[in-house]
């Protein structure tokens, strides 16, 4: 029983990270229609921003985390200008390949900057464990779940209770109409990208202490985030959360109870099944071409 | 649409490739072999993506399917590689037809993600089904191809075989592209609704395009297996699917010449840019992005545009 | 003898009833027009007839066979053709190749025969000289004509035309009308015309079906429809009848 609780909580923590990555992915897709195939690399950048600020520059936790997130926000703005704007009118395929290309650049840039050896990114709650019904849970894992819950709440507040968030949703639903209503569409699109990047950054900072910081970590994360959004429902925020948690839980529980070798396969098989049987996922949109 | 004779193209491949085979040294010959093998795969990918518009990010899985099928048949069951090649192609094509039917109801990024998931699943299964595939150790000891006592066991000889295969594939691809089947595929990509309204069975056309791409991919896989004589999971992961996609984009999608040129270019590019060292991939990514933004029709499209400009200038001077 | 028959066809989009119990018949060689104000459901009706959209209720029959749920390409092979409101051509194919895609519905013909057939269709529509041109070099009127050629190359027995005169100048409209009349004389081709150009409708149609808000509000000869009060109030507003009286 203790084992199960430990696996369950760790699964929730891992799932929370996937959920954050998926949320960023969904925000960008809803607002701009772009399927960001570099989503995993964004998370990886977040982890390495943490490495740069905390491990290398040795900044104290609050300063280091803030600096890392500011760097991610700046990167999000840069990405918007250099990648999104030029490809805005291109067909779906071109945008997909474009984000793939950027992902390759990002991964390689990280390799040049940090080398190929994995880093250990410590958590501010390093070494502290909590006892739940006999299971030893790392405080970090608990913090990840709590922080994710808080963030989801904040995002909900942003999108449903602030003028800014409502504006972002308006742009996501109909950019032309939003423009005619006097909204600064470009600014809101840029903010959507920046928000998504910062969320990916947070995911990376939270994930770092749970795994290693490795320049190649982006791809497996991206794949899990994609699976999460398909299962939860493409374009749906609650779907991204549910999907992320599902993928995280099946990964860890599946590894223990089914097969350690095939643990990653479970999420993809489920994803493909959903695509074949119920492509809109649990919560998602109906599959139609975006108008 | 460029209009070239399939025979001329096949001849050009044989002549140019033949000359290079006599002139180049071993290391470059190996790269040329890799180019030829990749070109066959990219030609297949051109049917699915260039003509029919299917965003498949799992092409490398078909290549791997063919390669592993040949590897298993020749090493575990003692088949002759010449028999194993058509068998591998058949099996891979059947597999493509089977998964195509449910899969091709998806479109756009859903199809992209589904095919990506398939490629990843393929890699996971091949890595872990150790009794069948040898896991991460792969399968070695794949026999060489030979005709009687003549063995295709050095780079030059294998290149001749590869060039003949490529020439045949290119001729077939051009003929198909200019036929009613090629037009039907292009119609499906350009406007699916109008294609339906013109009597085209869209689902059947898409599945055919996918099966064709799988058949070419399997052939490429079998040649890979008999060239290197060793297969391992990481040779067919989705990064390779991205490379095939990049080769077609750079060369020029929808064009047979584009597939071949793109394959050759992106095989030799890491060699020519070796001085960039670790930064090569970053450069590659930036180049791909730049081409997407500034030159979306690839090199073949650029050549076409320059030709039209030249023709326009000529018309000016003769006026 | 009825070639195409729709019985009590309804189409619902969420809360909106786009079509409501519409009956419709077309006999061989007949020229029927479907008119109605914008949003009346005319294009939706065409989509249901051609299989691009499935009805929520009702039946569609062609040549006596039930095709309500039949795939679009099957209906085309049976003899149902259609053009679209803004002309949907295959942008990477030339004019001739576009038409050849339509001709290819005949699986038993060789490539050469398909080419000859397509060229003859283009020639009859006066586009033979433009056969090799790429689509993006054509004018709007020419594009619509190419689409018509492509639909004709499929050898339809009933041709559904979705606002073929939209965007054409009056000279092009006259040409279109002349060509349609000639086609019908040669081929016993039934035509269903959706149009806003009333001159064209009244001159060519033998029978007119009027839709409004998805419902059939009138049907009859041009003269009957022109004086039907329900039709007049649909187009001109309720006040018209009051003002008249």
Please specify the SSE layout and strand pairing:
The complex is a heterotrimer of chains A (291), B (319) and C (245).
Chain A: H1 2-32, H2 39-56, H3 61-87, H4 92-114, E1 129-132, E2 135-138, H5 139-161, H6 163-173, H7 175-180, H8 185-207, H9 218-232, H10 237-257, H11 263-277
Antiparallel strand pairs in A: 1-2
Helix pairs in contact in A: 1-5, 1-8, 1-9, 1-10, 2-3, 2-4, 2-8, 2-9, 3-8, 5-6, 6-8, 9-10, 9-11, 10-11
Chain B: H1 6-23, H2 26-51, H3 59-75, H4 81-103, H5 108-128, H6 130-133, E1 139-140, E2 146-147, E3 150-151, H7 155-177, H8 180-190, H9 192-196, H10 202-228, E4 230-231, H11 238-251, H12 256-272, H13 280-294, H14 298-318
Antiparallel strand pairs in B: 1-4, 2-3
Chain C: E1 4-13, E2 16-26, E3 31-35, H1 42-50, E4 57-62, E5 65-66, H2 72-78, E6 80-83, H3 95-103, H4 111-124, H5 140-153, E7 158-162, H6 170-187, E8 190-194, H7 198-204, E9 207-212, E10 215-220, H8 222-226, H9 229-236, H10 239-244
Parallel strand pairs in C: 3-8, 3-9, 6-7, 7-8
Antiparallel strand pairs in C: 1-2, 1-4, 4-5, 9-10
Helix pairs in contact in C: 3-4, 3-5, 4-5
N to C succession of SSEs of chain B: HHHHHHEEEHHHHEHHHH
Low-confidence stretches of chain C: none
Form type of chain C: globular
Main sheet properties of chain B: 2 strands, antiparallel
Cα-atom radius of gyration of chain C: 18 Å
CATH evolutionary superfamily of the domain at 1-79 and 190-245 in chain C: P-loop containing nucleotide triphosphate hydrolases
For the termini of chain B, the CA-CA separation is: 27 Å
SSE pattern of chain C: EEEHEEHEHHHEHEHEEHHH
Task: Give the second-level CATH assignment, the architecture of the domain at 1-79 and 190-245 in chain C.
Answer: 3-Layer(aba) Sandwich
DSSP summary, beta strand count of chain C: 10
- What do the pLDDT scores of chain B average to? 90
- Biggest chain contact: A-B, 40 and 40 residues
| Low-pLDDT windows of residues of chain B | none
Helix percent band of chain C: 25-40%
* C-alpha end-to-end distance of chain C: 41 Å
Report the average pLDDT across residues of chain C. Answer: 90
- Alpha-beta classification of chain B: mainly alpha
CATH fold field value of the domain at 1-79 and 190-245 in chain C: Rossmann fold
**Strand order in the largest sheet of chain B:** 1-4
Q: Widest sheet of chain C: strand order?
A: 6-7-8-3-9-10
């Amino acid at each position: 029983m203790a084992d199960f609780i430990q696996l369950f909580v760790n699964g929730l923590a891992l799932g929370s990270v996937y959920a954050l990555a998926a949320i960023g992915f969904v925000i960008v897709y809803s607002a701009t229609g772009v399927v960001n195939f570099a989503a995993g690399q964004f998370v990886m950048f977040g982890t390495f921003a943490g490495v740069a600020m905390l491990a290398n520059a040795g900044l104290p936790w609050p300063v280091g985390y803030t600096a890392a997130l500011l760097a991610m926000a700046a990167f999000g703005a840069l990405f918007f200008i250099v990648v999104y704007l030029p490809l805005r009118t291109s067909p779906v395929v071109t945008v997909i390949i474009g984000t793939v290309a950027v992902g390759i650049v990002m991964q390689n840039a990280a390799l040049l900057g940090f080398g190929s050896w994995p880093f250990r990114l410590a958590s501010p709650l390093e070494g502290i464990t909590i006892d739940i019904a006999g299971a030893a849970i790392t405080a970090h894992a608990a913090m990840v779940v709590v922080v994710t819950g808080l963030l989801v709440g904040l995002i909900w507040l942003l999108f449903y209770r602030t003028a800014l968030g409502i504006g972002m949703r308006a742009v996501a639903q109909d950019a032309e109409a939003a423009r005619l209503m006097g909204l600064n569409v470009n600014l809101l699109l840029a903010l959507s990208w920046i928000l998504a990047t910062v969320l990916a950054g947070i995911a990376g900072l939270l994930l770092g202490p749970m795994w290693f910081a490795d320049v190649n970590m982006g791809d497996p994360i991206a794949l899990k985030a994609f699976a999460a959004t398909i299962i939860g429902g493409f374009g749906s925020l609650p779907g991204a959360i549910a999907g992320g948690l599902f993928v995280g839980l099946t990964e860890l529980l599946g590894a223990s109870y089914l097969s350690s070798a095939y643990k990653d396969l479970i999420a993809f098989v489920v994803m493909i099944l959903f695509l074949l049987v119920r492509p809109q996922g649990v919560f998602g949109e109906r599959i139609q071409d975006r108008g | 649409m460029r209009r070239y004779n399939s025979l001329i193209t096949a001849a050009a491949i044989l002549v140019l490739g033949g000359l290079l085979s006599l002139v180049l040294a071993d290391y470059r010959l190996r790269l040329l072999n890799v180019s030829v093998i990749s070109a066959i795969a990219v030609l297949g990918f051109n049917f699915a993506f260039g003509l029919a518009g299917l965003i498949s990010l799992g092409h490398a899985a078909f290549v791997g399917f063919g390669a592993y099928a040949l590897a298993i048949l020749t090493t575990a069951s003692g088949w002759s590689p010449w028999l194993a090649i058509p068998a591998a192609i058949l099996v891979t094509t059947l597999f493509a037809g089977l998964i195509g039917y449910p899969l091709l109801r998806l479109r756009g990024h859903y199809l992209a993600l589904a095919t990506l998931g398939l490629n990843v699943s393929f890699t996971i299964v091949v890595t872990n089904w150790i009794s069948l595939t040898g896991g991460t150790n792969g399968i070695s000891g794949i026999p060489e191809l030979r005709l009687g006592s003549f063995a295709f066991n050095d780079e030059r000889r294998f290149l001749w075989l590869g060039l003949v295969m490529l020439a045949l594939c290119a001729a077939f691809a051009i003929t198909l592209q200019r036929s009613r089947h090629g037009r039907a595929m292009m119609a499906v990509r350009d406007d699916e609704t109008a294609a339906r309204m013109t009597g085209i069975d869209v689902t059947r056309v898409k599945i055919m395009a996918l099966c064709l791409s799988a058949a070419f991919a399997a052939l490429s896989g079998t040649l890979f297996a008999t060239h290197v004589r060793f297969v391992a999971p990481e040779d067919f992961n989705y990064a390779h699917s991205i490379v095939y996609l990049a080769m077609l984009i750079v060369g020029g999608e929808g064009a047979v010449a584009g597939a071949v040129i793109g394959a050759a270019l992106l095989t030799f590019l890491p060699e020519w840019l070796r001085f960039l060292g670790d930064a090569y991939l970053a450069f590659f990514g930036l180049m791909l992005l730049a081409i997407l933004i500034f030159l979306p029709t690839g090199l073949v499209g650029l050549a076409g545009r320059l030709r039209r400009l030249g023709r326009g200038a000529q018309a000016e001077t003769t006026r | 003898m009825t070639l195409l028959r729709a019985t009590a066809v309804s189409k619902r989009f969420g809360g909106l009833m786009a079509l409501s119990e519409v009956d419709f018949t077309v006999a061989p060689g007949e020229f029927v027009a479907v008119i109605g104000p914008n949003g009346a459901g005319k294009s939706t009706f065409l989509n249901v007839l051609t299989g691009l959209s499935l009805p929520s209720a009702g039946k569609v029959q062609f040549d006596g066979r039930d095709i309500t749920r039949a795939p679009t390409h099957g209906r085309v092979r049976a003899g149902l053709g259609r053009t679209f409101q803004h002309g949907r051509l295959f942008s990477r194919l030339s004019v001739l190749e576009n038409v050849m895609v339509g001709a290819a519905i005949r699986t038993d013909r060789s490539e050469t025969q398909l080419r000859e057939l397509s060229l003859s269709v283009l020639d009859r529509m006066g586009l033979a000289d433009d056969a090799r041109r790429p689509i993006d070099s054509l004018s709007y009127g020419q594009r619509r004509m190419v689409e018509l050629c492509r639909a004709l190359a499929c050898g339809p027995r009933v041709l559904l035309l979705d606002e073929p005169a939209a965007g054409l100048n009056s000279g092009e409209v006259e040409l279109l009308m002349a060509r349609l009349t000639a086609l019908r004389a040669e081929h016993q081709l039934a035509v269903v015309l959706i149009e806003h150009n009333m001159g064209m409708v009244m001159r060519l149609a033998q029978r007119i079906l009027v839709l409004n808000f998805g419902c059939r509000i009138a049907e009859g000869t041009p003269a009957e429809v022109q004086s039907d009060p329900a039709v007049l109030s649909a187009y001109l507003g309720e006040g018209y009848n009051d003002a008249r009286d």
